[in-house]
Structures are given as structure tokens and as C-alpha cells.
């Protein structure tokens, strides 16, 4: 089959009501050792991670089509599966780097022979233009760069074509790992500049549809809302050349369709499948399910302290004692993941996430409600993101029943996913809601920075405590072996559990199902499929 006919066949794949034609057209591709077929439930809305409004499903383009200076290594999980290793930073475009004794300068040497797809050598000039872009365009990319104290183009210097310097305002343990996230991609600056305009100096319109990278895969075709077709870059210098020549990424909104496709062996992989399907598919012949705990992530019930009853921490504690955790774990998580309740009454280590000391205890909850002056309870809406209904709706129903036992009467509100981020995270006006957050940089203090500091995005409940703020400020850039690090993190966890604005339910897993024709999958913190490691069995 030539490339033109292959792509024509790829675009004929259909979904939903046209399931039969999809079954007819996919098995041949899935049986081909040169081609992998992967299905996702989301939609890719841009090929440029720096563009305003680019969604999470689009991040995987940055991973597969672009390189960064550095990446993370690989470790084996207890179940034998593979995961990225946050504690093992590895070269990608940089063959080596040096960090000054005071930790404020990082000097990178770019691999000799590294080239973009068009054959142009990757130079320090491309790295500077790309990082300048990431810190200048604003929005999430600029905020993520700031986490590593990368905030200004003035910090980036071209020493020569293969040498690049980053200067930090002060040493930070987050700076180097931040360069391994999907954001600091290295773009072919000559191509981008050729398509820039006075109104669009960073070529966002061009790069939105036309990646210009050096990564393991090129984009052969993008049909927005349907599919993305990748083609291997055989000259990739960032790592081992991928096992598949082509990968067809199909957008299939209906989970029942995605499940049927993986059960029949019509596709190689189905990404981010619900817990119920993960549990059931694991026993199916010819199907392998990899369920990896999402590091630094907790599904939680959040109590907005701007809502009058929740200003009293005894009410928040009462709610934490009233939740039927085990029933939620069984009916919403299908026992996939790690319970985050029933821990010890004291914080004995700084592992994060860790179990809170709460468990269901209705008598204790009622006593706290009476102490706070709410013996007769009150009414409050309980909200969740409709896009997360597979776990959030059964969790909300169980929470509703548990809170009714202590007089709190809830009305469940289902908010469309398109509106959730604005209402919950930006406006922060939901009194009681289900939320999840997982930090890309895997340290406890990074989690507390985003979720417990007033005004930060994932503090959706307006929690504000000067002691917590000071602890985070002092600790965020501190080395983990500093003598104050562990005591500071211990105190953060103690405050979080005592004041309990965010009530932990469970640590979720990322579930990916495969047929028996593919191997090599590796879990990543960004929760998107890294197709570079996939290979035919």
C-alpha cells in the first residue's frame, strides 16, 4: 500500500453510528506491524501547545513531534509496567549540561548532528527563540515555565551554536525538571519566523496547524475532530527510533465504541478508559490493561470557605467524617486507584499523596455540626464537571446520602465541561464541588503551591492561611535534602488535614487498554500517550 492510498484509507474510518464500516477498515491496519491505531475520547484542537486555548488532548503533539533539552528516564512499577522517573533527568536535545555551584546557571550542550525534520541543524538560537516564546505568550505555558523560575527572555543566552545558558534568579529544585515537561519544546525558528507577521510575531496561526520540530514523529495529516496521522522521523536523535512507521490517532467520543474496538482487536490501544471498563477488560483474552496511579493527583471534595457555614473548620471536618468513602471507592472508582482516607492521626512521613485521618463516623460528624451551631444542618449545592460524570456522578450521589445523615441537604448540579474551568477554577464560586488536580512536578510543596495558596488556579475553594503561604514560599525552591524541607512539608500536610478545605477521596489511576500486538507503553505525568515507545510484538 503506498502512502497516498494509506492516508486515503485512514480518512475513511468512521465512528459512532458508522461502527460497522469502522470495524471493516481498522483490522487490516491493526494487523500491520508498520502501523498502530490508537483511539481517544477527546478532541485535539491545536498542534501548538503554546497557543491560547490549546486543550489537554493536544499536549501529546508536543510530546511526540517536538524535543526538549531534557527528558525523564524510565522506571519499573510494582506491577511490572513502565513509568517515567521524575528523579532521573536524561538528555534529549542536550547531550550534557552543567549547573553552577550556587545553582543559578545551567549550561547546555546541544547534541551534534541533531536536526529538524527539514534537515536544518538544531542550534542554541532555536532553543532561545522557543523558550522566549514559551515565557512570552502568556496563559498556561507561561505559568508552567514560571514554576521553574523561567520568566523572562533575558534569562536565556546563546553562547554559540551548540551552547545555551539559562540564568536563574536563585537556585530552584524545580528548574531542571520543568524543562522536561511538554511546554519547553524546541521549534524550528527559521520556519516559524518565515510565517510570522507583525500581528503574530510568534507564528501561532502557522504552528497551530503546522508543527516544525525535530521529534520522533511528524504530522502526516490532521483532520480536526476526526484523526491525526503520525509518520516516523527516521533521523530522530532524541532517543531510540520508534517501533511503528505510522500511528493513526482516531477520535472516538463514544466509550462503548472504543471498548468494542479494543475487545475485537481492531485497534492497538484505547487511552484513558473509565475505571469500570478497566476492571472488566482486564479479564478479557487478548486485552491488556495498564492502570497506573497518577502521581501527585487526588480526587477530592472541596468546601468553599467563602460559603458561610464552611468558614468554620468544624463544619468542614464534620463533612470529612460524614463521607462514605468505601462506598464511593467501590461505586465511583470501581476500586481502581489508592484510598486516601483512614490514615493515622499524626503525619509520620512526607509522602504525597497520603491518607487523611478521616473515615466515616456519623456520630463525630454530628457532634462537630452541633458545636459549630449547625445541628439542624443547612442547604448547599453539590457540583461536578459533567465531563467527569463517570466517577463524579456516583461519588456525588454517595456524598449526598452521607451528608443527609448530618442534616446537610444537597442539590446536585451538573456543569458542562466547557464551562467548568471558568466557574470552578477561575471564578471560584462553587460552594461544594468535586475536583481533581495533579501537579506535573512531583513534589508535595508543588502540589500545595497550586492547591492551597489563595488566588492560584487549583485553589477552587478560596482557602487562605498565612502560615501555609509562608511554608510554601519558603519550601518551593528548597532542595529536598535541606534540613528544613521535611519539617516544612510535614506542617503543610498537618494544616491541610486539620483545616480540610479539600477532602481527599482517592488517588486515581490512568487506564490504558492494549491488544496483544503492541508493547512498550510507558506512563507519563501529563496523561497523554507517548507513542514513541510503542512497538509491535
TrEMBL record:
Outline the extent of the Solute-binding protein family domain: 88-456
Listed under GO cellular component are: ATP-binding cassette (ABC) transporter complex; outer membrane-bounded periplasmic space
> What keywords appear on the UniProt entry?
Peptide transport, Protein transport, Signal, Transport
Q: Which InterPro entries does this one have?
A: Peptide/Ni-bd, SBP_5, SBP_5_dom, TAT_signal
Q: Which GO terms describe its biological process?
A: peptide transport; protein transport
A GO term for molecular function: peptide transmembrane transporter activity
Indicate the secretion signal residues.
1-30
Q: What subcellular locations does the record give?
A: Cell envelope
Signal as a keyword of this entry, yes or no, is yes
Highest taxon of the lineage: Bacteria
- What does the similarity note say? Belongs to the bacterial solute-binding protein 5 family.
What is this protein's name? ABC transporter substrate-binding protein
Q: Which organism encodes this protein?
A: Marinobacter salinexigens
Task: Read off the lineage from the record.
Answer: Bacteria, Pseudomonadati, Pseudomonadota, Gammaproteobacteria, Pseudomonadales
